[in-house]
Design a protein that fits this description.
By secondary structure, the chain is an alpha+beta fold. It is built from three helices and three strands; from the N terminus they run βααββα. Strands 1-3-2 form a three-stranded antiparallel sheet. Helix 1 packs across helix 3. InterPro entries: KH_dom_type_1, KH_dom_type_1_sf.
């Protein structure tokens, strides 16, 4: 699963030093990675890999971080 988010928002989702991604991994067990797609320099991609359940739990965890923004 890959999320595409505006560059201005990815910092809030990923957190300082990737803390938000690490927390989402700890909660879900999914592997998360944020990266820049050269075709879309104003957007960032967040890749989520794992089982369907792990991906779902990671999406919920990231959504909660986004809602606190």
């Amino acid at each position: 699963c890959t999320l595409v988010v505006p560059d201005s928002v990815v910092g809030h989702i990923a957190g300082l030093g990737g803390k938000g991604l690490h927390q989402s991994h700890d909660i879900s067990g999914a592997q998360l990675r944020a990266y820049t797609d050269k075709a879309s320099p104003l957007e960032r991609c967040v890749s989520i890999r794992g089982t369907d359940q792990q991906i779902g739990e990671a999406l919920i965890a990231l959504g909660k971080r986004f809602m606190r923004k």
